[in-house]
Amino acid sequence: MEKYYLQIYRHVLSTGDDDAWIDLGSLEIHPEMAQLLAEYGILDIKEGHIRLRHAARLAKLQRLRRSLGVNLSGAAIILDLLERIEALQEEIDRLRRI
Hints:
Elements: E1 21-23, H1 31-39, E2 45-46, E3 49-51, H2 52-68, H3 72-97
Antiparallel strand pairs: 1-3, 2-3
Helix pairs in contact: 2-3
């Protein structure tokens, strides 16, 4: 029985480029895991590529699973909540500057 591990590599690309796509193969993620993450809404897969910002989401997901020991669906929920909190904090900071 083969074992597969989620391993994330940090790509150095412009963070302001929301349309940047990276090769899914460079992340060394099993195709079934990638498909499952796409079903959870964590990744957008298009012709074997994912968006640059989703590589950062994968890194967060991996840290959540490793440090908290939660399962994949739990990590997906936590990731979504963290992103919502970050968006709210950015909105608060923006309103304070006005």
